[in-house]
Fold this protein.
Amino acid sequence: MTKTPVEDTVAASDSDDDIVMRVQQGDKEAYNILVLRYQHKVCDIAFKYVNNYVDANDVAQEAFIRAYRAIGNFRGESSFYTWLYRIVCNTAKSFLEQNQKHRYCVDVDSPDFDNQQDVKGMLVSHDTPDALIESEELQRVIKKAMSELPDELKRAILLREVEGLSYEEIANEMKAPLGTVRSRIFRARQFIEERMAQFSQGL
């Protein structure tokens, strides 16, 4: 049945949760509303990773496809945008791994690192030393998130992302079970990405 303009207007004003519920119930067209609502933010997030508008657009499209396929698993434990944000980040990371053009690193060479925990958490290209995440406000968000992490989570994520240690090596270094290490790194990443999602949502 074709929707009238009035029905489309009402749908566009619905909350994310209402629209997600409709999609989960089989209303495929309702998903377009979510795409239109968040496409610019999703592209912006992707661009921070790949630093290329063409690639960012590809990542955004793939992220929306992945989100649509997984939307049946969305349970509302977080906001839809936070859930989508994680999918975008994971899609971008997969893209970078497949293209092997970038690496994830943290700037520990800053003279203020020890005293101010000046962790920038940025993607750096092998071809250019410029940080892909240049926003000072976003850097402050990431820095604050890192400072709020429990010591064990912070140490685990730094060993993984800065030192480049394997999960097994981190387990040996921290004298912790492998499952515990994986959990700590996952929780640290989730915490930081949630803070970044909140920041992005406020833009």
